[in-house]
Amino acid sequence: MTQIGIAGIAGRMGKLLAEEVAAAGCTLTGGTGRGDDPRALFEKSEVVIDFTHAHSAPAHAALAAELGRGLVLGSSGLSAAEEAAVAEAATRAPIVYAANFATGVNLVIAIAEKLAAALPGAQYDAEIVEMHHRQKVDAPSGTAIAMGRAVARGRGTTLEEAGRESGRDGHTGARGTGTIGFAALRGGQVVGEHTLLFAAGSEHIALTHRSFDRRAYATGAVRAAQWLKGRPPGLYSMNDVLGLG
Ligand SMILES: NC(=O)C1=CN([C@@H]2O[C@H](COP(=O)(O)OP(=O)(O)OC[C@H]3O[C@@H](n4cnc5c(N)ncnc54)[C@H](OP(=O)(O)O)[C@@H]3O)[C@@H](O)[C@H]2O)C=CC1
Ligand SMILES: O=C(O)C1=N[C@H](C(=O)O)C[C@H](O)C1
């Protein structure tokens, strides 16, 4: 029975996570909100699940490392420096960090990498379109960036080297060859929609994933917390949890 704490327990995800911890037969040790000191939560938990804000991730990861606790990190929009801090903490604590905890999205990302490896980047323009609820504060979504990284990996490069095109407006010039495009839509209460498009002169391939219920993320995160208990330090992904390699 895993002892699980929830950072951001009053949030959209936090409330559902509390329900899912109980449904999985785990023990809920407590939760924090903005302004609370998270140390006590980490002390009494085996694993803390953090769906709060990107800026909280380094401090939570450092506490996990100091106290030898597991961390399941779901916040999106981390800067390169925040991701580096999480990676450093993961040399001393087991951390699962995933852009999206829904099983189906992770399968789509795995397929995206395979498709990108088979489709020449000079002919098939990769464009990622995502839509989320009006309250979302970061763009493009973490999932869209993970899809872009998968496309780049499939092409034997990195997203940084391939180049990102986003926020096109005005006289943008022609699309760059081999770059990866992002478009973010915001509105209403959309839980999460992602489409990866490979567009060539004579054909289009589109992979779409739609989440209708945040519970898909919450059950995945609790599953990750149970999987993480007792693991050695390391930065794990949802692929590791799902056994996707
Ligand atoms: N990886 C995945 O599968 C998913 C990731 N997400 C990501 O999770 C994050 C949260 O999403 P969502 O639940 O919709 O957002 P919400 O804004 O509904 O919830 C976040 C909660 O965390 C609180 N909070 C902020 N900072 C801290 C802190 N340092 N310690 C404790 N609590 C804090 C907020 O308080 P306050 O309201 O006072 O700011 C709020 O209650 C986002 O980054 C989102 O992109 C969301 C869904 C799935
Ligand atoms: O903020 C959200 O809601 C979501 N955020 C994650 C992301 O940025 O990809 C996951 C999911 O799309 C919902």
Automatic annotation (TrEMBL):
It catalyses: (S)-2,3,4,5-tetrahydrodipicolinate + NAD(+) + H2O = (2S,4S)-4-hydroxy-2,3,4,5-tetrahydrodipicolinate + NADH + H(+); (S)-2,3,4,5-tetrahydrodipicolinate + NADP(+) + H2O = (2S,4S)-4-hydroxy-2,3,4,5-tetrahydrodipicolinate + NADPH + H(+). Residues 104-242 form the Dihydrodipicolinate reductase C-terminal domain. NAD(+) binds at residues 8-13, 74-76, 98-101. InterPro entries: DapB_C, DapB_N, DapB_N_CS, DHDPR_bac, NAD(P)-bd_dom_sf. One of its GO terms (molecular function) is 4-hydroxy-tetrahydrodipicolinate reductase. The keyword Nucleus does not apply. Homotetramer. The keyword NAD applies. Catalyzes the conversion of 4-hydroxy-tetrahydrodipicolinate (HTPA) to tetrahydrodipicolinate. Gene3D superfamilies: Dihydrodipicolinate Reductase, domain 2, NAD(P)-binding Rossmann-like Domain. It is found in: Cytoplasm. Keywords: Amino-acid biosynthesis, Cytoplasm, Diaminopimelate biosynthesis, Lysine biosynthesis, NAD, NADP, Oxidoreductase. Pathway: Amino-acid biosynthesis; L-lysine biosynthesis via DAP pathway; (S)-tetrahydrodipicolinate from L-aspartate: step 4/4. This is 4-hydroxy-tetrahydrodipicolinate reductase. Its EC number is 1.17.1.8. Belongs to the DapB family. NCBIfam families: dapB (TIGR00036). It comes from Sediminicoccus rosea.
